[in-house]
Amino acid sequence: MEKIKMPNPIVEIDGDEMTRVLWSMIKEQLICPFVELNTEYYDLCLPNRDATEDQVTVQAAQAIKRHHIGVKCATITPNLQRQEEYGLKKLWSSPNATIRAALDGTVFRTPILLSKVKPVVTCWKKPITIARHAYGDIYRAVEYRVPGAGKAELVFTDESGQELSRQTVFAFQGPGILQGMHNRDDSIRSFARSCFTYALEVGQDLWFSTKDTISKDYDQHFKLIFQEIFEQEFQAKFQAAGLRYHYALIDDVAAKVIRSEGGMIWACKNYDGDVMSDLIAAASGSLPMMTSVLVSPEGNFEYEAAHGTVTDHYRRYQKGEAVSTNPLATMAAWAGALKKRGEMDDIPALCHFADCLNQAGLEVFEEGYLSEDLAALCPAEELKEMPENGKLLGLIRARLEALLAG
Q1: pLDDT per residue as tens digits for the range 360-403
Q2: Cα–Cα distances in Å, from 52 out to 43, 59, 84?
Q3: Which of 17, 208, 210, 224 has the fewest CB atoms nearer than 10 Å to its CB?
């Protein structure tokens, strides 16, 4: 079989620990034998980020802007324990937050559903997609550890130097903690347009939630911008498509989602989306069963698995133990990036390969060959085997070859 050619590259962003090992195995066994893979490579493993003063992360984001498509492996956001473990110069920021801030846009996360893995929420029949704003809030916050008694103030000075607002945040009588966060109107508008456009593309209702009863300026601003853009730009399109836009408080939407059959897009602010996407993934089956794509208003796309670096498997792997790590979300990230490259460059063969890559993993899992995280969730009579990584990818490789030949 002649390899599929890729004239234009995608940006390949490598990561850490067990997902880095799996990343290499997926490339070598499932992609490179069939595709002349063309990537611009950036290594975002924690030691390299430390060595480059995290400039490699900035460079990776800039590369996605040039080539419009990136695929990213899971990476470590260090805490104090990781700083000591790796001997880091400082606690580097989340690489995801850095890339998302550079690209702006919205992260869409959708669980991968299998018939053999029953959702914890038994009424769910269809995937629930979380649309997460990819800018601001606590991910761009300024924080300060208050040493003792004193007054904290929120001050805004315009570009001419004139002070326009001064508010007391709190009069401290002793030590405490402060946090100041922000957002931008243009980013919120991009978020809203991305959500409405995506809902039309996939033919699903859009739900949006904040807590505007408590946050009467910050959260309400999101609500009002969404409503304005919906009425001015999307209401007629939604009506023609038979779709609905619904706003409610986040606790109300959470209750409705739990009682629904799924099949909607749930738009959330940055932190809300971070939490709710993990909740939806876990309740749907497993945290590693969640796809993620960042869509920017400039037409840039970054695909990744929504899970972490699977540290516990990596520790066992380092000891020479056999591990069975779920590859589906990482495979879905590669498949998404390759398909988007095929669509942009009009390469039908590459699009077909990407579809087959995605389908091969699903079919093997549906047959009862499940990774460690899912085996415990599958009825015993439906589980054939829990293969270690090499054998599992071998089974997927055989199925991929069959799908491509068919």
Answers
A1: 999 999 999 999 989 888 888 899 999 999 999 999 999 999 99
A2: 10, 10, 18
A3: 224
Burial 207-232 (b: 16+ CB within 10 A, else e): bbbbbbeeeeebbebbbeebeebbee
Beta bridge partners of 106: 133, 295
Closest CA to 182 of 136, 123, 250, 127: 136
pLDDT in tens, 179-204: 999 999 999 999 999 999 999 989 99
Using only C-alpha atoms, what is the Rg of the chain?
22
Place of tokens 């589980």: 383
Residue partners of 283: CB distance under 8 A and separation at least 6: 119, 120, 121, 124
Say if residue 11 is exposed, middle or buried (CB neighbours under 10 Å; 0-12, 13-18, 19+). Answer: buried
CA distances from 147 to 71, 138, 151, 154, 180 (A): 43, 21, 11, 18, 17
Task: Give 24's contacts (C-beta < 8 A, 6+ positions apart).
Answer: none
The per-residue DSSP string of 194-236 comes to HHHHHHHHHT--EEEEE-TTTSTTHHHHHHHHHHHHIIIIIHH
**Three-state secondary structure call for residue 258:** helix
User: Using CA atoms, how far apart are residues 292 and 378, in angstroms rounded to an integer?
Assistant: 24
Say whether pTM exceeds 0.70. Answer: yes
Which element (helix H / strand E) includes 349? helix 348-366
